Amino acid sequence: MSLKAFHLFFIVVSILAAFGFSYWALDNYLAAKDPTFLKIAIISALAGIGLVVYGFFFIKKAKKIIE
Predict the structure, then answer these.
(1) 41, 26 contact by CB (below 8 A)
(2) Buried residues in 16-26 as b, exposed as e (16+ CB within 10 A)
């Protein structure tokens, strides 16, 4: 597995982890009504969105390197 492929795989795993953690925190917020869980859910969702954006930029840059 090339370094670029591993990096892309790691980005995808990180995106899934961020959104999964956000879902878990949101579920706990709805059950416990603790605002800390809501803050964690929002921060994790934003991190997931940031990772998606980073992933698109990485793919674009990797295509430039290959060409």
Answers:
(1) yes
(2) eebbebbeebb
Specify the pTM: 0.89
Residue 22 and residue 41 in contact, taking contact as beta carbons nearer than 8 Å:
yes
Instruction: Give the model's pLDDT for residue 1.
Output: 73
The number of C-alpha atoms within 13 Å of 29 and in the hemisphere containing its C-beta is 14
Contact 3, 43 (CB under 8 A): no
pLDDT-derived band of residue 64, with 50, 70 and 90 as boundaries? confident
* 12: its two tokens: 């995808």
Q: Within a 10 A sphere around the Cβ of 57, how many other Cβ atoms?
A: 10
